Amino acid sequence: MSVSAERHDRVLVVRIERPEKRNAIDAATARGIDDALNGFQDDPDLWAAVLTGTPEVFCAGTDIVAGPGEPTPRGGPYGVIRRRHTKPLIAAVEGLALGGGFEIAMSCDLVVAASSASFGLPETQRGLVANSGALLRAMRCLPLNVARELLLTGTRLDAARAHAIGFVNRLAEPGRAVEVALALAAEICVASPTAVSATLQALEEQWEPDEERGWAATAAAERRIAAGPDKQEGLDAFAAKRAPRWSNPG
Question: What amino acid positions are annotated as catalytic residues?
Answer without folding.
Answer: 103, 123
